[in-house]
Design goal:
It is built from no helices and six strands. The protein is mainly beta. It has a single domain, classed as Sandwich (Jelly Rolls), CATH 2.60.120. The two termini are about 15 Å apart.
Length: about 100
Amino acid sequence: MVVNASGRASGQKAHLYMPTLKENDTHCIDFLYSLSSRDGASPGTLNVYIKVNGGSQGNPVWNASDTVTEGWVKAELAISTFWPNSYQVQTEYST
């Protein structure tokens, strides 16, 4: 997911929802992210949530905010769910 937040009003959000997974185990989620800002101000916040069993709101498991990165940064998360859970990974970027 690439989000260009330049020229956007504060408080706007972009979301990415992965398919629901029904496997019961520990899974590793790897991704790359880059936070930047043209004007040197805060680049916004990137959050990762895990929504379990189709619940209405995901549980926060990771975030990056207010720090401009030098290029792409790798993040690795271990997600554990056990029977009878299903889960969905959700990402949210907000300005």
